[in-house]
Amino acid sequence: MSAVEDKLASLGITLPAVVPPLASYQPAVQSGVYVYTSGQLPMVGGKLTVTGKVGAEVTPEEAKDLARTCALNALAAVKSVVGDLDRIKRVVKVVGFVASASDFTGQPAVINGASELLGEVLGEKGVHARSAVGVTVLPLDAPVEVEIQVELV
Q1: Which residues partner with 29 through β-bridges?
Q2: Using the 8-state DSSP alphabet, how is residue 150 labeled?
Q3: I need a surface site. Which of 5, 67, 82, 118 has the fewest CB within 10 A?
Q4: Helix crossing, 107-122 with 3-10: angle to 10°?
Q5: For residues 28 and 22, is the Cβ–Cβ distance under 8 A?
Q6: How far apart are the C-alpha atoms of 96 and 109, rounded to whole Å?
Q7: Is the confidence at residue 21, as pLDDT, over 80?
Q8: What's the CA gap between 86 and 77, in Å, rounded?
Q9: Average pLDDT of the segment spanning 129-153
Q10: What is the rounded CA–CA span in Å between residue 43 and residue 131?
């Protein structure tokens, strides 16, 4: 097991299997020393556990937890390409999308769930640039979607 997976285990987190694509794309691709993940939904066991808009059917606190799940799924996608998460030199960028009620403006706090997980697991390697964007709807009526870009050693 890699040091990153040991860290996950110490946090009581199991790295899931990579989420199979829902359409015509790959969960992650490598180009040179970078891995780009596709948008990862908060799938657990192949299913969304929560659907709806943040600020309406989904609370910001629930959405923050869902963003953590998205980031965990993104790490699984990275591992599916590179085989060993210890190859991550740093997380370069996180992009988070939040399906938002029309008056919801807390997207950054929601995507903190993903950012905080990456920091807990990767330490300084998890510090990244980020965008947090409110959108009308996401695939399968997911509340949150996260993609990451990592640099490899």
Answers
A1: 36
A2: E
A3: 82
A4: 120
A5: no
A6: 11
A7: yes
A8: 14
A9: 98
A10: 21
Coil, strand or helix at 135: strand
Q: Which pair of structure tokens corresponds to residue 24?
A: 């015509």
Which among 101, 81, 83 has a CA at the least distance from the CA of 35?
81
Other beta carbons less than 10 A from residue 115's beta carbon = 22
Q: What separation, in Å, do the N-terminal and C-terminal C-alpha atoms of the chain show?
A: 18
DSSP secondary structure letters along 41-105: --EETTEES--S-BTTTB-HHHHHHHHHHHHHHHHHHHHHHHS-GGGEEEEEEEEEEEEB-TT--
Structure token digits, residue 100: 């938002």
DSSP label of 143: S
Lowest-pLDDT range of 17-21, 97-101, 140-144: 17-21
Q: Any idea which residue has 């969960």 for tokens?
A: 27
For the stretch 86-106, pLDDT in tens is 999 999 999 999 999 999 999
The Cα 124–Cα 83 span in angstroms is 21
Phi-psi region of 125 (alpha: psi -120 to 50; beta: other; left: phi over 0): alpha
